[in-house]
UniProtKB/TrEMBL annotation:
InterPro entries given in the database record: Glyas_Bleomycin-R_OHBP_Dase (IPR029068), Glyas_Fos-R_dOase_dom (IPR004360), PhnB-like (IPR028973)
Annotated keywords: Methyltransferase, Transferase, Ubiquinone
Pfam families (alphabetical): Glyoxalase
PANTHER family referenced in this protein's UniProt entry, alphabetically: PROTEIN YJDN (PTHR33990:SF1), PROTEIN YJDN-RELATED (PTHR33990)
The organism of origin for this protein: Devosia geojensis
Keyword Transferase: yes
Domain Glyoxalase/fosfomycin resistance/dioxygenase: 5-131
One annotated GO molecular function: methyltransferase activity
Gene Ontology biological process terms from the UniProt entry: methylation
The protein, known as: 3-demethylubiquinone-9 3-methyltransferase
């Protein structure tokens, strides 16, 4: 897997509808994981909301989306982040160190409950970044 750079859009309770719409527009392969799939929902009403979705098209387009959980800030117009992901954790940690320097770390770059190493930051220019080093598959 190469390192990839793509938009990541956050929604409030409409991520499934939105990503399925984008799938109808662009085609390709769509994968969806809910908060319930990973035991990340304390409220049963939130279990079917989208924790992560990814649309990959044959011509190289990638779009990711999720629902913003209750209690987390959500402001339309500032709900797009740049996602940087891949398998080379050392490479991604280097990018993370540079992107977060002088900015604000909102989620430290560390092992996440789903097995990846993940972090979120606002760089010194106010751009939101999500960095994800894909963990080794379990099992």
């Amino acid at each position: 897997m190469v390192t990839r750079l793509n938009p990541y859009i956050s929604f409030r309770d409409t991520a499934r509808e939105a990503i399925e719409f984008y799938h109808s527009v662009f085609g390709g392969e769509l994968t969806i994981s809910t908060f319930g799939d990973f035991g990340m929902s304390e409220n049963p009403a939130d279990a079917d909301k989208i924790m992560h979705s990814m649309l990959e098209t044959p011509n190289g387009l990638t779009l990711m989306a999720s629902d913003t959980p209750p209690g987390m800030d959500y402001k339309p117009g500032t709900n797009i982040s740049v996602s940087l992901s891949g398998e080379d954790e050392a490479e991604l940690r280097g990018y993370w160190d540079k992107l977060s320097a002088g900015g604000t770390v909102t989620v430290p770059f560390e092992k996440a409950p789903w097995g990846d190493t993940f972090g979120m930051c606002l760089d010194k220019f106010g751009v939101q970044w999500m960095v994800d080093a894909v963990g080794k598959p379990q099992g």
